[in-house]
Amino acid sequence: MEKETVVRKIDNKDIEELCHDDSIKLAADIIKSGGLVAFPTETVYGLGADAFLEEAAKKIYSAKGRPSDNPLIVHIANVDDVENIAKDIPDIFYTLAKKYWPGPMTIVLKKRDIIPYATSGGLDTVAVRLPSNDIARALIEAAGVPIAAPSANTSGRPSPTKASHVSEDMDGKIDMIIDGGTVGIGVESTIIDLTSDIPTLLRPGAVTLEMLRKICERVDVDPAIEHLLTGSEAPKAPGMKYKHYAPKADMKLVRGDESAVLRYMKDMIKDCDKPMALLTVDEHKKDLEAEAKGNSDINILSLGSIKNPDSIAHNLFDILRKCDELGVEYILSEVFDESGIGKAIMNRLKKAAGFEIIDLR
Ligand code: AMP
Ligand code: MG
């Protein structure tokens, strides 16, 4: 059933002012009464509900069309709040939290009974994050409860990095959207699991594997990050088994040295027989545009500068959504170095492309 979705814009304010902001108060009241509010975080927009209320968590799954075994991340405003929702917390948690919270890092811990299974996707663990975005923190403070929030997109679509992306997917399905402008990072949080002996990276993000390894003696990498799981491999982050971030078009990645990739893309342009998008970088855009000579079936879209991987992370989901808007039938993207934030970029690109890579090496 359609409902009216209130959209409120909040400009940059300091956290003190935000705590008294009318829109934050309205959003907090909606959360307290079991409703749904989309709000900005530093990574992507989240779709929030009271993490303690089973019925509210269920509404998130229904608005997103999300499978009910794909757990939600619980957002808190102070490190101490973790003790209310998780137990048997290892020392390494506090070291990681001290270094990288507030920020784009989610930590999986053993859950307390107060977290309903509807929030944890039926698991005995809970994923917790303390975001750095001031609007997000003011909202959690004002609501007075931890806020369960997955990304505020329809399940399977690219995560929203702007309020307009949230409206596209959620208008009429949720109570409110807080428009806090375009998010900073653009890819979802890093997820690290601390419930077994060796910390395991379940999803790469802006707190990079290299950064985690500076703190933890050893960090394993979940195989679902690297490749499509085979039938015998069980994913640790249930979300990893679902097709994700997928644009509507058929998408592939092309890997090889720079000149070979450019030659391959130019051949695609020459043989173009359907609307397509080539995802490239600022440094290659002009060269490819010259080859396309204004052919309106060919869209050459830059993800950012190769010298600035953060810009690529920032633009990625917006560009994937643009491909849907353009109605292209085929998308071919360059690949990127997997160090630092590159691991998160490549994880999202591989998932969008169903791990289909044309290897020219
Ligand atoms: P989203 O916020 O939409 O990116 O979704 C949350 C992600 O966190 C999904 O990929 C989940 O599978 C993962 N996640 C949430 N809770 C847990 C948990 N308890 N254990 C492992 N992964 C989790
Ligand atoms: Mg998501």
TrEMBL record:
L-threonine binds at T43, H75, R129, A149, S189. SUPFAM superfamilies: YrdC/RibB. ATP binds at R66, N70, T125, S151, S159, R203, Y245. Its EC number is 2.7.7.87. Pfam families: Sua5_C, Sua5_yciO_yrdC. Keywords: ATP-binding, Cytoplasm, Nucleotide-binding, Nucleotidyltransferase, Transferase, tRNA processing. One of its GO terms (cellular component) is cytoplasm. Required for the formation of a threonylcarbamoyl group on adenosine at position 37 (t(6)A37) in tRNAs that read codons beginning with adenine. This is Threonylcarbamoyl-AMP synthase. It comes from Lachnoanaerobaculum saburreum.
